[in-house]
Amino acid sequence: MVIALNLLMALVVAVVFAAILVYGFQRRAAGPMAGFLFFAVILFFAAWAGSVWITPIGTDQLGVPWMTMVLVGLIVAMIIAAVGAPAPAETTAPDEEGVEPPTTVGWGCGLLFWLTLAVLLIAAVARYTWFVTPTPQ
After folding, report:
1. How far apart are CA 56 and CA 72, in angstroms?
2. Among candidates 25, 23, 16, 93, which has minimal Cα distance to 47?
């Protein structure tokens, strides 16, 4: 039950900060919904892994370290906002030149995305399986 609540809270934090990035700061990325899904996935896994490894800050609500998730999500969102490019201004090309097709993100960025997700997922799952401290009875 605690794991499900951790996942739910991480999802809420990720959706809120991804919405702020995409619609508030006008940051865009490759993928559906102008990068909203890209940002939400990165923030979800970062908040989840951070909350299970970092010592909880403040009080836990139903066993969920919500303040830790919010702080990890905020830090990762600030890094993305600082590094990510703002939405480009839409320019129209003259009729004789035609419209230039949009460029795609290089395969290296895709590889880095999947590698980051794999490392964060392994870190979170490892905390629940291999690094569990037994509770005294």
Report:
1. 11
2. 16
Q: What is the pLDDT of residues 65-117, one digit of tens each?
A: 889 999 999 999 998 888 876 666 666 555 556 555 555 555 556 778 888 88
- Measure the N-to-C terminal CA separation of the chain; round to a whole number of Å: 20
Q: Is 75 left (phi over 0), alpha (psi -120 to 50) or beta?
A: alpha
Q: In which band, very low, low, confident or very high, does the pLDDT at 9 lie, cut at 50, 70 and 90?
A: very high
What's the angle, vertex CA 66, arms to CA 84 and CA 73, rounded to 5? 5
Closest CA to 38 of 110, 124, 137: 110
Q: Is the pLDDT of residue 123 over 60?
A: yes
CA–CA dist 43, 76 (Å, integer): 7
Q: Which residues contact 72 (CB under 8 A, 6 or more apart)?
A: 46, 47, 50, 51, 54
pTM reported for the whole predicted model: 0.76
